[in-house]
Here is the input.
Amino acid sequence: MKNSFWLARMIGSGLAHVQHAIDEAADTGFRMLRKAGTKTESVPKPEKSRVLGTLKRTGKSTLRFLGETGESYYQKYDDLKNRKKGSS
Here is the structure.
């Protein structure tokens, strides 16, 4: 009977690897967003208009917010997974 479940175990293991890869890609993406939102230019360029400057600041703030949100999610998610492992 044990040998009949090898396919189920292989599928389950494969799905776990896929989920892990997706998590790692999303985590990396969120870090890149946060880094892009905090990156400063070495030589300040004069803005052509106030609207352009406002849009640029808003865009960076949005990237930083999304990156911080994603990192917070994955930190908490990992914490919850580790707690579940500890209680098992």
